Amino acid sequence: MASLRASGTAEEYDERTQLLTELANLDEEKMVKKQEDNKCTDDKETQGKAIRQAAMENLKVKKQKGDLDVVGHNEDNHDHCNKTENCDNIPPTKKRRTDSSADYVSYLKDRLAFEKERFELEKKEREAQIEKDKHMMEMVMSLVKKKN
Q1: H or E stretch covering 69
Q2: Is 12 helix (H, G, I), strand (E, B) or coil?
Q3: What pTM was estimated for this model as a whole?
Q4: For 60-69, b where at least 16 C-beta lie within 10 A, e where not — what string?
Q5: Average pLDDT by consecutive 10-residue portion of the chain (148 residues)?
């Protein structure tokens, strides 16, 4: 057998001792690997905490300066600015979206006004037709009475 005792003597290990030694070595390697993994994980967590802390400090600084680009910290800032302010820091894609939305809302309002006006005209036409039919029936009834 090729395995020799660590003490340097030329005694051969028996098979059981060899397996136990291999298991112990594997267990030690596993513990070392686990410690390295834990250290790596701890390092990542520490770095993550540091990054989050720096980001929060940056947000606090921006909020203290009164910047409008801090989203979610001011109730009026949910659309990058107040409704009454003219904002130039809105991204172009959002401007296009809000412009087209405003155009669409305007279109819908115009369409609603048109539909109301059309409904009123049709209502007047129906009332006029009913009056005409009522007048016609009165004339027919008066003619029938005259004949009888």
Answers
A1: none
A2: strand
A3: 0.32
A4: eeeeeeeebe
A5: 55 79 93 91 88 84 60 46 57 71 89 96 96 96 90
